[in-house]
Design brief:
5-stranded mixed β-sheet, alpha/beta, 15 strands, binds nicotinamide-adenine-dinucleotide, 3 domains, elongated, Rossmann fold, 11 helices, N-(1-d-carboxylethyl)-l-norvaline Dehydrogenase, domain 2
Length: 398
């Protein structure tokens, strides 16, 4: 096997996960970042000042590399089954370049068994090389979080694994050299694949539980926020909040885990169903409340604050707020959406707030820091309401 001392590394897929990894590895090793997105490569190549790190969209430029790390996106299709086409295409591209003693490490989120059961046969077939004799495979899931500046690649323990004990050590040594917090060497690739999924599915299920109890309590005129405050004084109460689960990490994890299960109606699918239907649940709750507070009104003006799938990020990837706006629009109401942080999109329809705008209800959908400075009474007629999705609470705006 090629010794770790002077590896030549290729990173395939330079998104949220691949790019920071390429930068960290490029601080120590000769590293080439590859992506099929030509404009991204042009931008990165023009901005890069590192001697060890280069960028390309020509796959043959990677032919001298010994370690290939795949960090392309994975998703689910309309039926909720894994959509691995980027992963399998990337695997095919590098299979043509594979040489004796090369190492292929997967970082993309996959279901347990995917690396050895689906990717390795493609690598063997196209390269003509034998797995665990001529080439080796590792899996190291990523834990960093879009828009999270506290938990980074370097300060978060990274799970590592390999296709045999020697490869596992080699993968572990590589990541230990860039992750200051250290690594956790899992006993097998399948364990590492599954560990990533249960970390995220656990959050998905706990948020679903909060969404579920918050709905029940709100329908019974009991404040979820007050109940939560009371319950959270117990030492082992888990302090999850309610919320619209967007992005792709959490939903993907529950669906990939469920992909392995024979019995599809389980905790994972119930959680997914509760979280995915929350836009309709919130729509029902807020219209019931508006009718109670403004019984004379035939129509309402509603402002939705925030469309990004989480606070302080421009990303609207998988944002359920888009679905919420669609559901609200089916009722007798004028819906305005304001988000100065989100990337440009067709849903945000006001660019600024002024006191010419008056709303019966403001829904705080994303807790962007910038919204802390808003003076809500400026936009609210008497009796107007605020509904905060992260606490599931109604409050008076003035
Ligand atoms: N974003 C997160 O916070 C996060 C956290 C943990 C794990 N993950 C997982 O990591 C993986 C990558 O996620 P991401 O957020 O970085 O995705 P992303 O969409 O930001 O980036 C993926 C990149 O891969 C490129 N790509 C697609 N097909 C390619 C191919 N065949 N060859 C080369 N490049 C290709 C795309 O052009 C894109 O630049 C996914 O499996 C995701 O589930 C993401």
């Amino acid at each position: 096997m090629i010794p770790i001392q002077n590896p030549h590394i290729a990173i395939i897929g330079l998104g949220n996960i691949g790019l920071p990894l390429a930068i960290a590895l490029g601080e120590k090793y000769r590293t080439i970042g590859f992506d099929i997105d030509t404009s991204k490569i042009e931008r990165l190549a023009s901005e890069s000042s590192s001697v060890n790190l280069s960028f390309t969209n020509t796959i043959h430029t990677l032919s001298n590399c010994h370690i290939f790390i795949i960090a392309v996106s994975t998703s689910v299709n309309q039926e909720g089954n894994p959509d691995l086409h980027h992963l399998l295409t990337a695997t095919q591209s590098i299979a043509f370049l594979l040489k004796k003693d090369d190492l292929v490490i997967y970082e993309s989120t996959v279901f347990p068994g995917c690396t050895e059961g689906l990717c390795v046969p493609i690598l063997e077939k196209i390269s003509g090389l034998k797995f665990n004799i001529d080439f080796f495979v590792g899996y190291s899931p990523e834990r960093i979080n879009t828009a999270d500046t506290i938990h980074t690649l370097k300060n978060t323990i990274k799970i590592t694994s390999g296709s045999n004990p020697e490869t596992a050590q080699r993968v572990d040594e590589l990541y230990r050299s860039i992750v200051e917090a250290g690594t956790y060497l899992a006993p097998s690739i399948r364990v590492a694949e599954a560990a990533k999924l249960i970390e995220n599915a656990q959050r998905d299920i706990n948020i679903a539980f909060m969404n579920n109890v918050a709905t029940i309590l709100t329908e019974n005129n009991i404040s979820f926020e007050e109940v939560w405050q009371a319950s959270s004084t117990k030492w082992n109460f888990l302090k999850f909040s309610t919320g619209l689960v967007g992005g792709d990490c959490l939903p993907l994890a529950s669906q990939y885990l469920n992909h392995l299960s024979d019995k599809k109606d389980n905790t994972l699918s119930v959680a997914r169903q509760i979280n995915d239907t929350l836009p309709q649940t919130i729509t029902n709750l807020v219209f019931a409340k508006l009718q109670e507070v403004f019984p004379q009104n035939a129509t309402f003006k509603i402002l939705v604050l925030g469309i990004s799938y989480k606070p302080n990020t421009p990303s609207i990837k998988g944002s359920l707020i888009i679905d919420l706006v669609e559901k609200l629009n089916k009722n007798k109401a004028q819906i305005a959406v304001f988000d100065p942080v989100a990337e440009p999109n067709a849903i945000v329809n006001i660019n600024s707030l002024s006191n010419n705008h008056q709303y019966h209800l403001i829904i705080k959908a994303t807790n962007h820091q910038i919204f802390e400075n808003l003076n809500y009474p400026d936009f609210a007629p008497p009796n107007a309401l605020l509904f905060n999705i992260s606490t599931f609470s109604f409050s008076s705006l003035r």
